[in-house]
Design a protein that fits this description.
Length: about 500
Amino acid sequence: MLELFNRVKLTISPENDNPFLQGPYAPIADEITATGDALRVIGDIPRDLHGVYVRNSHNQVHESIGMYHPFDGDGMLHALAFEDGKAEYRNRFIRTTGWYAEQAAGRALWPGLTAPREYRRRGWGSIGAMKDNAGTDVIAHAGKLLASMSQCSEPYRIDPRTLETIGPDQDWGRDIQPEGACSHFKVDPDTGEMMFFNFGEHAPFMRYGVVSPDNKLLHYTPIELPGPRWPHDMGITANYTILHDLPLFFDTELLARGNHRLRFHRDVPSRFGIIPRHGENRDVRWFEATPCYILHLSNCYEEGDEVVQDGCISLDPHPPQRNSGATRYEKMRSMLDKHTTRTRMYRWRFNLRTGETKEAFLDDEVTEFPVVDNRIVGRPYRYSYNVLFEPGQWLMSGLKRYDLLTGAQQRYEYGPGRHGSEPQVARRLGGKAEDDGYLVVFVANMNTDLGECLIFDAADITKGPICTIVLPQRLNIGTHACWIEGNRLDGEPQRTAS
């Protein structure tokens, strides 16, 4: 069955030549629900796959104020729910305050990342000028989805079964305003606690919080930084949280004049603040490391006296434009190209006894968007599943599996005209090992102009998908995803074993 839930009116001009509004990036107008014969299944959906795979995306509705950036669009969730060998697909806009306002106006009311000085009304985010699009991250906690944008925003709660937007969080969201919450919340699989941070342009420049398994704010504290920063991720272990103070931030002299121009300060070391789970600013231990930028971590854990942090590092996150004649779109594409910024798997070791930092590359191939099994977040782990990128493009071309115990690697590439998403690990019902289950990912197939969901054996992705579900409409390029185990759809379960 195929049901049209809603169709929005797209007002983007046909004369708009922005490549990030065309082809695989082109926005989708229809919100649909598809079950049964509306989904073409190639292979068999595993009967021991139970849960929901959800991916967020930026889906622009209106002609933008200023040049559109691919992280400006309205948040749209795409989800496939699995149970007993069956699947159900739906996609829905995240109905934020900004989305409703622009729907009523029939046009864009807020500028995006490239034109913050053109704002005419109060906005959200650390700059305070953006629309709250909630289009970056999505996780599950306390029986609901939680969506946000990377520049900090109100945390939006969404029903994981229907994708209905419930609204800004009513339990603790109002207690963290005006800063809101940044993307990349982390949920402890043992305690059910959720950790988050935010940042802004006014002292103390960062705040850190902990939310209980039943969605109550347990802890919220200021974190003092030397100035405004632009962090993106954070890590957790069983006892600590790792906060980032990285040398990619706005030029301070220009910022004082209201000009937001990012600069990589190559002479400023990276700093990582390790704070006890419920600690205060005075409890933070800061460790210095090589100047870099980090978008996404794979996992963190404790090992003896050390806190270990794994993730994708860029030592040149803001490379100078070598082509002086490049168009503004070419410059944007270069900034987004992972082969230009050279993001690669890396490991930091912070010794809590000696204060020493050790760091080293884990691989030399360009990868990003690393994910692990939900049940080993913050614990020693073995496997990281990363994304491969097409050179010269902001397009995900395949998957790479790291065995961090043996050093073995696996890879799978989607092929020409097929662009992926952030994958998720879905442990099978009764599965014990990290890779005892499946790897699930959405793919935009531009050869057919349809979306697909690929399901891999997590233990061997080289064999290709064991099942492909062809969706009845196209998928656009997205950002982050999450996997909600069936027993987490109504809240955080008590977990007694790994």
